[in-house]
Specification:
The chain is mainly beta. It has one domain (12-310): Jelly Rolls, CATH 2.60.120. The protein contains three helices and 26 strands. It has helices at residues 52-55, 130-135, 294-305; strands at 26-31, 34-37, 41-45, 58-69, 77-82, 85-93, 96-100, 105-108, 113-117, 122-127, 137-147, 158-162, 168-171, 177-183, 185-186, 189-190, 199-206, 211-215, 223-228, 230-233, 238-241, 244-248, 253-258, 269-276, 284-286, 289-291. A hairpin with a 4-residue loop joins strand 20 and strand 21 (238-241). The two termini are 35 Å apart.
């Protein structure tokens, strides 16, 4: 699980927690069920079973893989529409190509992120390059959906290409954890992702036995998803492992610990930390659209059927995924 790494963690700026910060207790821990997405690649549904009030402004998240593809097995998604939210694809291992009908796109690989604001609507496709399909190889990533407030749902689409080398790298006072700030602010350190809805997104790697204590905005919610490894969260040390999501309660700091012994496949504890300012608006979500009302959903489907969200480039010789 390479993403972005450094040899000497002690060379990085350190994250500290102010004295007297209130610790966030763990409210729930859930286990993600497995499923398939797109053309059939395996995913874990990280937010399954969690109330939307605890997720807001996040809508869903899938852990894609970790899977070792044999030659000819790698899969992606066909062309499909989105409206009303932002999609975030973070690639930890492997390669994905993105293209959308608003002119955005590119290739993302180890540690890169593509941040697509669907806004008023577009079509896009995400797929492994032909070289990966032919050769096979490791693939592992995350797709996250971030809601947009009503006032921004019909804004013009936008694409951000966030290279792994631009993420903000931080560590803990003892150098036991590497923090990659992809978006938002952590202890005054800003990640490169530009978001319409205020959020923080951090990928943390904890060495065996390490403890991570972070400051966290009090007005944000707080979610932790385990990408790999074993550990415990909160002062009560709720056990977590690969595929588990912890929801934290109110407070201004959180604690994560890595078990002393990790398995050989995942030598460290790898977690994704998410926080955001809840939008607290009605949400109507169905398929690829996230709107505020049922009427707006119906209008989105009608606009898609009439080609108002874009047309698949003829060069691909591919049809749109039916809805």
């Amino acid at each position: 699980m390479p993403a972005v790494t450094v040899e000497n963690l002690l060379s990085l700026p350190r994250v500290t927690v102010p004295a007297g910060a209130g610790e966030r207790a763990v409210r729930t821990v859930t286990t993600a069920p497995s499923g398939f997405e797109g053309e059939g690649f395996p995913v874990r549904r990280a937010f399954a079973g969690i109330d939307y009030d605890d997720l807001d402004p996040f809508v869903l998240m899938d852990q894609m893989g970790e899977v070792e593809y044999a030659p000819g097995e790698a899969k992606g998604t066909p062309w499909h529409p989105h409206r009303g939210f932002e999609t975030v694809t973070y690639i930890i291992d492997g390669i994905f190509d993105h293209q959308d009908t608003h002119g955005g796109g590119g290739r993302i690989t180890n540690g890169d992120t593509q941040w697509m604001t669907a806004g008023s609507g577009l079509l896009h496709i995400e797929a492994p390059p032909e070289t990966l399909v032919m050769s096979g190889g490791l693939f592992h990533g995350i797709q996250l959906w971030v809601n947009l407030p009503a006032q921004d749902k019909m804004m013009a689409p936008r694409y951000q290409d966030i290279r792994g080398g631009t993420v903000r790298l931080l560590s803990t006072p003892d150098g036991g954890a590497l923090l990659r700030v992809i978006a938002g602010d952590l202890d005054g350190h800003q990640g490169p992702g530009i978001t319409h809805t205020p959020i923080t997104m951090v990928h943390a790697t904890l060495r065996p036995g390490a403890q991570l204590r972070l400051p966290w905005r009090q007005d944000f919610n707080c979610l932790l998803y385990v990408l790999g490894g074993r550990g415990a969260v909160g002062t009560d040390r709720h056990p977590v492992h690969t595929g588990r999501t912890a929801v934290f309660g109110a407070g201004s700091a959180l604690t994560v610990r890595a078990d002393e012994k990790q398995d050989s496949r995942t030598p460290d504890l790898e977690v994704l930390l998410l926080g955001g300012l809840p939008i607290r608006e009605p949400m109507a979500h169905y398929g690829p659209f996230v709107m505020n009302t049922r009427d707006e959903l119906e209008r989105a489907f009608e606009d898609y059927r009439k080609g108002r969200l874009g047309v698949v480039p003829a060069v691909h010789g591919m049809s749109q995924d039916g809805l």
